[in-house]
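My main concern about presentation is that the manuscript never shows what a single data entry looks like. In essence, backbone conformation is discretised, so a fold becomes a row of integers matching the chain in length. An entry of this sort, consisting of the sequence and the corresponding backbone structure tokens, reads as follows:
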Amino acid sequence: GFRRLLKWIGPDEAPLIVFEATGAYHRSLEKFLTAHDLPFVKVNPKQARRFAQAIGKLAKTDRVDAEMLSRMGSALDLQRQAPLDESQHNLKEMLTARRALIKDQSAAKARLATATVPLIRRQLRQRLAQIGRDVAQIDREMADQTDSDTEMAERIGILTSIQGVGLLTDITLLVDM
């Protein structure tokens, strides 16, 4: 599909390519566009949907989405986005996984509070212990990655100098912003 996209765009100056951040799928597209020096902007799906509603496009099909994203790029004068490097992508993915684990942890704690069957209570305690190990492992890996990235380590050093701001908050701020 990427080769067909490249052929469809043609050899002339490429237009700004607007697409939604879709989790698993947009990263490959972003890498491809970056490798071919094609201009792009990745938009938040929620914002794209709100834009569509604002212009009266309530249907949700691929064709309507494509038209709406094109109009959004023009109407809002969206500008070319700088691609994230591999380290930033990895940190973002790990932070997303960590957030999912914390949600799982909250749900398991809530179930444990009301569970009465010994088997279920034991499984929930085991699950909570595993989640704790998984979160700790992700935290260690994020810390290692930020230590090995000079620019990221410098930014984290600045943020950490603020009283009460720790490494996880630093990483979250840098990844989300």
Notes: The chain has eight helices and two strands. Strands lie at 17-20, 40-43. The chain has a mean pLDDT of 87. Helices lie at 2-9, 26-35, 45-54, 62-75, 86-114, 118-148, 150-160, 167-176.
